[in-house]
Specification:
Chains A, B: It comes from Colletotrichum sublineola (Sorghum anthracnose fungus). Two copies of one chain form a homodimer. The first copy, chain A, is of the alpha+beta class and 696 residues long. Chain A has 17 helices and 28 strands. The first copy, chain A, is globular and about 75 Å long.
Chain lengths: 696, 696
Amino acid sequence: MGSIQVPESNVDVLIIGAGPSGLMAAAWMAHCGVNARIVDKRGTKVFCGQADGLQCRSLEIFDSLGFADRAWKEANHMIEGVCLLIRLQNPGNDGVIRRSDRIPDTIVGLSRFQQIVLHQGRVERFFLENIKKYSKDQIKVERGVLPESLEIDLSKVDDDSAYPVTVKLRQLSEEEATPPQVRTASKAPDGLFRSNLVQEDDEEDLIKKSQARSGESEIVHAKYVIGCDGARSWTRRALGFELDGEATDFIWGVMDIIPITDFPDIRMRCAIHSAENGSLMVIPRENKLVRLYIQLKEVTPDASGRADRSKITPEIIFGAAQKILSPYKIDYEYCDWWTAYQIGQRVGTTFDAHSRVFLAGDAVHTHSPKAGQGMNVSMQDTYNLGWKIALAAKGIAKREILSTYQSERRRVAQDLIEFDHRFSRLFSGRPAKDVMDAEGVSMEVFKDAFLKGNMFASGLSVDYGASMLVVKAGDSLKQGDGSKVLRAVTAISEEDFKKKQSLASGLPVGMRFNSFKVLNQACARPWHFQERLKADGRFRVVLFAGNILDAAQKARVDKFCAALDAPESFLHRATPPGAPIDSVIEILTIHSSKRFDTELLRDFPAILHPFDPHTGWNYDKVFVDDESYHEGHGEAYKNYGVDKQRGCVVVARPDQYVAWIGELEDFDDLQKYFEGCLVLGNRSSNANGTTLPIRQ
Amino acid sequence: MGSIQVPESNVDVLIIGAGPSGLMAAAWMAHCGVNARIVDKRGTKVFCGQADGLQCRSLEIFDSLGFADRAWKEANHMIEGVCLLIRLQNPGNDGVIRRSDRIPDTIVGLSRFQQIVLHQGRVERFFLENIKKYSKDQIKVERGVLPESLEIDLSKVDDDSAYPVTVKLRQLSEEEATPPQVRTASKAPDGLFRSNLVQEDDEEDLIKKSQARSGESEIVHAKYVIGCDGARSWTRRALGFELDGEATDFIWGVMDIIPITDFPDIRMRCAIHSAENGSLMVIPRENKLVRLYIQLKEVTPDASGRADRSKITPEIIFGAAQKILSPYKIDYEYCDWWTAYQIGQRVGTTFDAHSRVFLAGDAVHTHSPKAGQGMNVSMQDTYNLGWKIALAAKGIAKREILSTYQSERRRVAQDLIEFDHRFSRLFSGRPAKDVMDAEGVSMEVFKDAFLKGNMFASGLSVDYGASMLVVKAGDSLKQGDGSKVLRAVTAISEEDFKKKQSLASGLPVGMRFNSFKVLNQACARPWHFQERLKADGRFRVVLFAGNILDAAQKARVDKFCAALDAPESFLHRATPPGAPIDSVIEILTIHSSKRFDTELLRDFPAILHPFDPHTGWNYDKVFVDDESYHEGHGEAYKNYGVDKQRGCVVVARPDQYVAWIGELEDFDDLQKYFEGCLVLGNRSSNANGTTLPIRQ
């Protein structure tokens, strides 16, 4: 065997694991045109079960990639949430419904999307098709491929052109790559093989078996590696990193069934706290399915932390559900999938090694699935990381921005497990018998947690701290470990920041760019502004041009645009020679004059609608905050909290987070922002060239 | 060759021609599970150019099939229309814009969709994927297949089980099936081979050539044949049918380009009437493309009706456009497609032969493409016809309903060509010099036509006359030729009809079922009600249940439901033994009580949310007219003009047209409606069986 040549190759980015987190990373590479590979040890993709709640923020992200509409169309929409307390069955109360509260499941006005439910297999399908389309078939998931060793050449980690990470990959046989689903006598496939109740680090076994065969391995040299390989991450173990946290005694079962029941709220999200029999959560799904999360009071782990496997059957789980729901009756003929898990919350201490190997998703945080958070937070990890790696790999951004991954995402993971910790214990606890029962959980406390959970579950409360990428007050070292990158150049005092933030009070720096409707100046089409912030790796400078018909304001806009269009501006210097002027940074304008009174070509400087000698003027970059014919008035200035006369300038990162706010006169600060995070070239030879009008 | 056995086979429906009209017919067969074939003489599908405006109604129809979202996402949305008069270039007026009017391109409030523009190739792609999905790969377009002969066995045309139409089909070679696109020296593909300026009945040639080869033909026996084979329809000629009408001297050119221009309204639909140089229409499209319709004043047909081909080049067409647009400048580097046509309007005298062979689309009506009507009306022809043939072929509906195709669609075609006739002449005419110039077209007249065109172009003004399928006042014989089928059983006096119509004044009988938002009672999800009227071949009885919490009203609802659920009701008798109760006719309920005060299982009779022993209660059939959390109040009762206390009953046909309106007490009339058009079985053995609740 020693004589066989093992093939070697280079790749910019190697992604290990093709779940939602790995696929999100691959999607960025596809959208940014980065040379990447993605491997997964499993031979087949997930077809049913597993995580399935999609937050508003995840849908906004899907929209930035181009497939939110597909998820929105197929999913069950979560509209109403209900808290119920089912007390002991007293004579005469049969069939009487006691809803303690009915609330909108997504807080009204938070996002243009609402929370939906769709199983992970469909989400992965959307990703696969999207990656195929945008990478022009270049990036495909390589299945049945297992990493065997990982080495980082420390002498090369600071060299931009090097491939310092070496990974040995092994191709498994079809049999080896097939997960041992359907282990029990039950007809429905179970997910126990991925449950934390069953130990299943099979990599070593698989590698040993595979090594007996020859010629099935290869060596890959990568600039960057992203480990998205789940709670028992091989990549994490290869790096020797740990998860901090603990497990509890609470064990829950999960079943996806088509219910046959007289329980009236089966098509709403219900949190049911029974007096004696434990708790249950109802999550209505697509295709008549309902997911039940069922507290298994009669199953507890032994001293070793393992539960009695014989007690984990669909029959026992469903029996517990029937008890909790009594006096209502529930039954099923069809079960789509089931599993069980032990509640535990853990978070990684370190999210990356030398800014060359990164961990994301379950590989750095695990928690209970009930809050519907797992898939979302995992995808959002790599939505944060992917563009940073892509821009670094392409030489557009400085490699230093990569350290913001840990500072931004570890705090989110910590918030998540803290929330989950409180929520899970509350939910698994005994309900209070009456107001004097201090040990039990009162209905009020329970309901409060349910409401707070809704805000958290939207994914929209994420607020990144100060860094070279986010110009706001605060010390990056206090924002989270690893943020050694805040530059003096972008540092800002608390007082100054308050002033800048007040220019666009509806766009908090560090949070995602909220969306309101604006009209295209040239054709009057209404757009949710976020629809114009596509995930293509570009930063956006959003010029709120204010009242462009006012001569003084027009002069301010002209001056800002003249600075933008100067050869030494960040815009020209960021643009590669010969490339269109909007290749790296796109300028988008929203003005507040009446659309009927303004003319794109007459009233707006050419740099705002750049001229291309092959395709003419650009009609897709200038928008107006005005009434639409068919879809009302977006009131964008009002909602963004921007002055209609004077406007302001806002930078959105490629992942739609607000990065910088300033006056039209703050061009120098804006220039410094981009000098801080991007690799800028010399005076661009493009300057003025791309904006030459045809009419002199 | 005589010794070779020609294969023979039976098929329920044979569709000739796979343009939008034929594909719509095939889509119905796929959605209704009918055994069908679709053939096209061309070897490849259309990739660019051709008709591209999509009316509101076409989008509603696409939504009923399941792909409106795809068209909506890719298309350019037509928001604003502009009428412009460009006068002679006087010194000093350079660059001054004179818009005579700016109006919404789609009348506000007419539909949940607005008019969009997307080229035919994408529309055909959506159809092909939809047909593949719903027919489970059973129906595929067979390309390069030409019909050679068609015979109808008159002795069998009244036999439901017979296959009276015999068609001989011939498989062409790849070369024969390739259309002679790109004939000129121009780089852009041209569409002249489909233009009415070029005679091109190549079937005979193709058949002759093909006959020289052996073993390439087959014989198909069909129950029904639909000829969707275009303006020079082979099917129409095989039947010996004629088109009535005339051509004019007006010749227009069409170009799809990416314009490089300083003309300010290039991204709006513009009707431009120049003082001296003729007219131009601007239709902005997707991907920066713009379609220009250009009047060619310098090209006229000769005595034989043919134009001088040497004058039909992109250069000459574009030169005319530049003249019309002056003093604005226009140029292009990229041309996607171009063609030219002679304005003419013709309509078929007869739309079917013995209710066995039908003609649809351009095969029975031709007109100028400028009004953006062609593809829409053609698709709507087969949207009207397809479900009728499908239900007749399946034995669900009586074959007599097929004669309503001609009575309903010929009038639409006549209206269309009449409109087109007036509009085209107006548009091609000379603009008036001043108010005294009686021979010229005044700006006011021109603008008025533009506005009227918008209403017509929505596709929503279609109003079908009285027939066995549409219960309204009027004599079917006067509604249109061929309507020999109005039955005494559904005839209604003018006075009685007024009363019935007043029960739902917002749902005119004969017009499409308008859409407003309602909420699902069980889960609070808002739906545009039309989204629940999917194209699956089912009739819908919409029960406006009124105030269900009022005891007297509840008694009315209970009585209506008891009649529905009786074994002899049309509902049970229309349902095949063993099939779900909603297989042929679906009952949908909209009530007007507050959602929070009502309970699906408690307040609504079981027949309104039927119980299935395998999947439990149905949660998708009862809706409420109430405020939603995120999308406002649909005010459905108010908009439909239905009394909130008493409600009413409305029947929607499978194609969403309103067919019948009555009181809850008019059950007998409702029964008669379905006895008139459907094949009803005996007392159903399902009665009561499917609605047994689990709780006694």
